[in-house]
Structures are given as C-alpha cells and as structure tokens.
User: Which sequence fits this backbone?
C-alpha cells in the first residue's frame, strides 16, 4: 500500500505562494520608501526648528548662603528666608571686618 503525502492545511499552493510572495515584496518596497520619506521629513524638520539654546551653567557661589543670612540678620539687614541674597547685603558681608578671602564653597 502506498502512502500519499498531503500538504498541511495551512500551507498555500504554488500559485497562492507566488501571490503571497509578491504581496510581501510589495509591502517591503512600500515600507522602505516610507522609511526614506520619513528620514527626509525628519531632516527637513531639523532644519526648520530653531536650535535649542545651550543650557546656562549655574554659577558656583563664593559664599555659604546660610552664613550670609545669619550675619545679615545679626547686623540689621533684611534678607529673604529663601532665594537670592540681595547684592547690597552680599557687598556688605564681603567688606565686613575680619572677612576671609573669597574662595569657592564646595
């Protein structure tokens, strides 16, 4: 007795396989065309957008804010509890008697 091989039900016939291959090739071509177009659009977008300004580096303080605030309050200067210390207060602190030379605080 001879056994007949049968194709699994999910495998397409020869003509169907060619159609599937042709469709896959078409999809691949369209996909690569879209990728190229997307790359062109991204490059054009980069030329049209203004460049982002460089981030400003924060200036390292040459004083300890808590020390300046304490000194300022003891010497009758008004200073906010937070935020920038007013320039006149900093100038007065730097010119105080016995002030140490300016050095960056680490």
Assistant:
């Amino acid at each position: 007795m001879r056994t007949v091989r049968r194709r699994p039900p999910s495998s397409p016939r020869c003509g169907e396989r060619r159609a599937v291959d042709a469709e896959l090739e078409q999809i691949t071509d369209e996909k690569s065309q879209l990728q190229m177009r997307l790359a062109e659009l991204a490059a054009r977008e980069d030329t049209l957008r203004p460049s982002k300004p460089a981030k400003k580096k924060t200036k390292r303080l040459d004083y300890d804010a808590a020390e300046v605030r304490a000194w300022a309050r003891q010497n009758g200067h008004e200073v906010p509890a937070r935020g920038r210390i007013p320039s006149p207060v900093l100038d007065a602190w730097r010119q105080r008697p016995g002030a140490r030379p300016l050095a960056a605080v680490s």
